[in-house]
Design brief:
Elements (H helix, E strand, L loop, with lengths): L8 E6 L7 E8 L8 E9 L4 E6 L3 E9 L2 E5 L2 E5 L4 E4 L4 E6 L5 E9 L6
Antiparallel strand pairs: 1-2, 2-3, 3-10, 4-9, 5-8, 5-10, 6-7, 6-9
Length: 120
């Protein structure tokens, strides 16, 4: 299956998880196409000064892979700075947030996978 860029769904999430500004998402795979393995497969774009608020994952886990920009992440209360090529995993039961602290858009791959397949 091929999915051209113009066919990929785009969405906007203002104040995601209590964060600042609006996160833009490019969904390169839909949940219904994932065979019950996950709920988010996309590129997240956060403008300078924007963020996704601190939240806990229950029943799933999330992976970030930074493509462009500079991110301040909080991983279970511990702050760190991520740059292109860096990644972060927030496991089930763990908490995290991400903030764009650079002067251009922060872009990263975001994947949220279920800890158990839906329906199993």
């Amino acid at each position: 299956m091929i999915c051209k860029a113009e066919a990929q769904r785009r969405s906007q999430e203002p104040h995601l998880k209590g964060g600042k500004d609006t996160v833009r998402l490019i969904h390169f795979l839909e949940e219904t196409q994932s065979y019950g393995t996950g709920r988010l497969f996309g590129i997240s774009i956060i403008p300078p000064g924007g963020s996704i608020g601190y939240h806990t994952h229950t029943g799933d886990f999330e992976v970030y892979y930074i493509l462009k920009g500079t991110a301040k992440v909080v991983d279970n209360g511990v702050e760190d700075i991520l740059h292109p090529g860096d990644s972060m995993i927030c496991r089930e039961g763990d908490s995290h947030s991400i903030e764009n602290i650079g002067d251009r858009d922060l872009e990263y791959v975001a994947i949220i996978l279920y800890t158990n397949r839906k329906g199993e």
